Every structure is written in C-alpha cells, then in structure tokens.
Amino acid sequence: MTRADFLRKFATQTRLIGPIRKARRAYWLTLGTVRYIRKPENLIRYIRRTPADIRAWVMLIDRERSSGRLSSQSAALARSHQIEPGAYVINSLADQIAEKAEAKLTELARQPIGELDAAINEIIRWKTIVQCRNAHRDGGYFSAAEAVIQVQ
User: Fold this and answer.
1) Residue ranges of the alpha helices (H) in the chain?
2) Among 116, 15, 40, which Cα is nearest to 71's?
3) Are 9 and 70 contained in the same domain?
4) Is 68 in the same domain as 135?
C-alpha cells in the first residue's frame, strides 16, 4: 500500500474528516468568498465589479504588502489598524464600513492598485468612525468620559 493509498483510505474511513471539512468551509465562508480568488488579476476584476466588498480590498492590501509593493507608510498604517484578512474587527465591521465607504471605493476601484493608498485611508477612516459609533452606542468609555469632560 502506497502512502497515497493509505491517506485516501484514512480520509474516507475517519469520522473526523467530515466535521473538519465542514468547519474549514464554514471558516472560509465567514471570511467571504474573496478568499477563493487565487490570481491577482481575478481579484482586481472582482474589486472593479464589487467595489464595496471590504474583504476584497483587504486581500489586495495583504497581497501588495506581502509582495513589498505597498508603500512603507501604508503598510505601517494597515498593520497598526489590523487591516489583515484574518483580523476579527475588520471582518466583523466589513458590512458597516462598506455601507459608508461605498461611494469613495467605487471611485478608487477604477485603478485599484494605483489608488490602494487612498483606499487604505478610506477603510481606516470608516473603520475608526464605526468603532467609535458602536462604542458610544454601547456605553463603556464614552459614557464615563462625557461626565468628566463637562467638568473640564
């Protein structure tokens, strides 16, 4: 029995393979369908078709950063604001950010690579605004700070 035969037999007889595959598929689906786009030209075409998809922009930012083509300032901004494919905040707020940034991202989608620095700034801008809005709505720091601000 060759190694390939053993692995094939093991994969079909093990009860954990199904749940593992389902969990892996569920994980990728939570990140969005963009994860399946392999070629850079397909990603750029996808961004041009659906410019409000924040996850696609994040994938493009990640590709440009990992290849070294992203400017050092933009790479530092993206890293400090956790603009990464697996980052929880950007993925959980993607729909809200897209809703607010759609007009500007539609403009920038004509030349996604050339306008990537502006797209990073726009995504960070709306990410920050949405996070502050949610924090203000949910209480926490802002509700405690506003009473003190009145005194100052």
Assistant:
1) 3-13, 17-31, 40-49, 54-67, 72-80, 88-92, 94-108, 116-138, 141-151
2) 116
3) no
4) yes
Structure tokens at 85: 């494919």
Report how far residue 51's alpha carbon sits from residue 25's, in angstroms, rounded to the nearest whole number.
25
Predicted TM-score (pTM) above 0.85: no
Contact 95, 73 (CB under 8 A): no
- The reply to whether 146 and 108 lie within a common domain is yes
What residues contact 120, with CB distance under 8 A and at least 6 apart? 61, 74, 77, 78, 83
Cβ atoms within 10 Å, residue 87: 14
Residues 27 and 56 in one domain: no
pLDDT tens column, 90-119: 888 899 999 999 999 999 999 999 999 999
Structural domains in the chain (count): 2
136 lies in which domain range?
Answer: 40-151
Distance of alpha carbon 38 from alpha carbon 20, whole angstroms? 22
Closest Cα to residue 91, out of 115, 43, 127, 121?
127
Distance of CA 45 to the CA centre of its chain: 17
User: Is-contact 85 31, C-beta < 8 A?
Assistant: yes
